[in-house]
Amino acid sequence: MSQFLAGNQLLINLTMINCLLALSQYVALRAGLFSVATSAMAGVGAYLCANLVVALGLHPAIAVGAATLVGLGVGLLLSLPLSRLRGVYQAIATLAVCQIMVSVALYADPITGGANGINGIPKSLETWHIMLILALVVACLFVLGRSTTGRAFDMIRQDEHAAVAFGIDVARAHALAFAISGFLAGLAGGLITIHNHSIVAEEFGFPMLMAALTFVVFGGQQSLAGPLVGAVALTWLPELGRMLADYRMVIYGLILILAITYLPRGIADPRLVKLVFRNRALPAEPVEERKHA
Amino acid sequence: MISLRALLVGAIALTGTSAMADEIRIGMPLALTGVFAFAGVPSREGLELAAEEVNASKLLGDRKLVLEVEDTASDKTQAIALVDRFGADQGIVAIVGISTSGEGQAAAPVANSQKVPLLAPTALSDEILKAGQWSFKTSSAATSTITAVANHAKDKLKLTHVAIVYNRDNEASVAQRNVFRDIFKVGGNAPTEESVLSTDVDFSALITKLGGAQPEAIYLTLPAEQSANFIIQARQAGLSEIRFLCAQPCSSVQFRKVGGDAVEGTIFGADYFSGLDTPENKAFVESYKAKYGRTPDNFSALGYTAMKLAAEALKNAGPAATREQFRDALAKIKDFPVVLGTGKFSFQEDRSSIYGAPVLTVKNGEVALAE
Amino acid sequence: MLIQQLVNGLVTGSVYALFSLGFTLVFGVQNILNLAHGSLFMLGGFIGLICITYLGLPFPVALLVAAIGAGLASIVVDLIAFRPLRKRGAPEFSAIITSIGANLIMINLAQRFTESRVLRYPFGTFPIYAIQIAGIRITLFQIFMVAVCLVLVVALVFYLYRTRFGGQIRAVAINERTAGLLGINAAIVYLQTFFISGALAGIAGVLIGTAFNSVHFLMGEPFMLKAFVVVVLGGLGSIPGALIAGMALGVVQTLTIAYVSTGLSDIVIFTILFLALVVRPSGFFGPKAESRRVVRA
Question: What is this structure's pTM?
């Protein structure tokens, strides 16, 4: 077992970072925002962190902190124009933001290293660091989810007109959701930077965008467990499928289609969990049930 | 496809026991699928051919080379994970793999922290060497082949007005641009620079723009098919007078196949010229053709050379070589006969490699030495 | 040179428009962003290639076969990725995910079959002939592409607005339920829509593959990004909009490359997209009210 852990440490770290990305996407979707800006915000955070560490020699913790705050800032900034849009238009707008970010990263050679990216970043991240951060984040989000804000998000997502009728300030709630999403994305971006020795523009483009979205959709949007389960499952799937390596992506695509069609609430659907546990002889553990439409 | 034997050895590795005493396990992460498979696949062929020859000739006595081939799928993260895994497995003596500069830049630091020797057959970037003393690359710095072409253009062809077209989203391409530009502008004529994306296919706007500027030559640091495509469109747009200088991938058959008549007369440098007149190379070309049914290209030759270098290092390091001994033996290799360049390979003090670089051209559909 | 660049821009633009036609049609009728559209385009390119290299068919026939092939593939994508969702009343969001899945599958199967190589149409597929008028140089193929694009746009508009089938499509686009009450079989309408969309993509694939000497498994992806810009600017669901926005995009891109910088062209295009969404999401011709405050299930 310890051999397994040692040999796969990178993968474990990557999984946890993916969890953060998934959570960032989850918060946005939970509040009814069809935003896929997670990867763009992560990218901005990552480049800032890399520059701070390499060019200015700042301590990684400070750099990551800065990345997180910048992510939050970008999120807030995006919320201004984007909160007026809905549905597919919002998605396309955030997609455009992602494209712009990658293109600027390729173009602005002096700051971003262009195609080379930024290299030679000392690796200063331990597994337990990430674990601690992730645990904290999950705890905070859990509390948030059950608070008034969380309920406001749920309401806006389900029926915006009703939410407005209830007096919920939709614009403010959206801004908050974007900010939190950005915070998490920036954090993930910073962690990626001090973990990977180097960052390249393409990392923060389409593949990451799709990955974050897929984690949440596959895992489920109904509860906090969803994005986490999705991130773990989909990060490890290509590894386990190494035998079928050639057709890995085909299987990935198939899973996406089958999962969304037949398990639209994702695999970490609380109702599904309850169904499974119901038949156990031992008293079932109380499962969090969220009231959703 | 991973052979049953490799699977078995891999399974044993997972449980942490060491390899059988007469086997030397080499980790081999390559880009066998994905966008960089054009480099990974031929390099694998070269690597495997060389390993077979080494085993058959008993160069290492009773010990046999066992290659554990894995696919990075042209993905940096996978490359890092594989290098990390091979590095953690103490039964692996060395890693001969990693296909691209991008993968190399990311994976070399990992190899160094794991203290496992890494010899990248086809990756170009100098960052690999800068990562630490454990990482090597077979390919000479981008400088070598590009220097040859740049000097040829400046001195032999007496060109003064040149434009460079490069991929702004590919680190190797950018590095090549830098090298060419720095050498060329020494004469006082800084080349103009234009960028495209590696996914671009429509160059009409750029070609018209360049057509307006009328350079004497255009240097393309693009992959083979994209270069060929560019040249075809340029000719179709009426730019028949401009000479084209291309990068090393254009020494491949693919370039001539895709480009057809349009690429006659283009000039490029290469690590490898299949017409090199040495017994080593003649034998290599014959065995490669016999085994794989075609002439070896740049990447096959690099792979073949990498494995030969590794075998030489293993021989010199002696039986039961440790990772350190392998690394030191590898770094000491000088004037070793290879099929690359002009025939002799040496590692320098800073672990960079030199082996000479022929300047080639396309003549009547075949590769020939440029005048 | 400016005129030459404008001509370049219009040719490039008509290509973008052609690609985006099918994409915007599907959105107009079904409210789905079919992210597998790029793969259908790629598939068309490959089918055409197979027809010409292995079956020795002449170019026009290959074009037709590619169109039909891609159209059928499109129907298959619908049956696997979208129809089950429709039956379950899933939100539009799910359809985007399944289309991503379908896209991944098609791209990777193509990658396996071609071993990641970049293929090309054989020389002489289409006669290479350039015309020089008043200092402008344009090839026969470029004229052909623009012509095909215009013809298809006109044909599509005619089909939608002048034929019975077209009327049915538009009815279902407005409201599926009501159309059903009027006796229109929505299932057949959806099949038609996807077939047409795929066929258009397939034709575009053959044209692009021939024009730019390159057919490979990832060829659809850059076009998808441009398609977003085209359909938003032109209005999601609007055919004439796709044409005009496509042309405009082609010209803007070409002029940016020619007079500003090659590196900035992408940034400029996507910034325009972003601004358009913020200021006028419905584009030139799109539906005005629906872009904002859509209530989601």
Answer: 0.79
